[in-house]
Amino acid sequence: MKCEKCGNEIGTVLVSVFNWDGSDSDVRLPLVECEEAAAYIDVTQNWTGYELTEDEMRETIECPHCKQFPFKNPEIQVYDIVRVVCFRQEATP
């Protein structure tokens, strides 16, 4: 898709996340286009925009080219998705 601010083709966005040491940094995450003229980004609760206002959330998502929120429509919807990871016992040689 194209960034609606600068017009450059983007397949990823920069998203601000908290690091384990308490600092934050930008990570490049895939931007997935879907129906209804929408796109989504899968993030974790380490996203710095989690539980903030929509205005504050937009400040944590940037186009990798122009460093602006890449959509003209300001609406953001957040869905909480839980993924359970189970571990198998490692095989011994």
Q: How many domains, as an integer?
A: 1
Q: Calculate the mean pLDDT score and round it.
A: 93
Distance between the termini: 48 Å
- Which consecutive residue ranges, at least 5 long each, have pLDDT under 50? none
Helix content: under 10%
Work out the helix count.
1
- Report the C-alpha radius of gyration, rounded: 16 Å
Overall spatial form: globular
Provide the structure class.
Answer: mainly beta
Q: How much strand? A: 15-25%
- Placed side by side, the strands forming the largest sheet appear as 2-1-5
H/E element order: EEEEHE
Quick overview of this protein structure:
The protein is mainly beta. It is built from 1 helix and 5 strands.
Task: Describe the protein in words.
The chain has one helix and five strands. The protein is mainly beta and 93 residues long. It has one domain (1-93). The longest helix is centred in the middle third of the chain and has 5 residues, at 54-58.
What is the topology?
Blueprint: E1 12-18, E2 24-30, E3 32-34, E4 38-40, H1 54-58, E5 61-62
Antiparallel strand pairs: 1-2, 1-5, 3-4
Keywords:
93 residues, three-stranded antiparallel beta sheet, 24% strand, 1 helix, mainly beta, two-stranded antiparallel ribbon, 5 strands
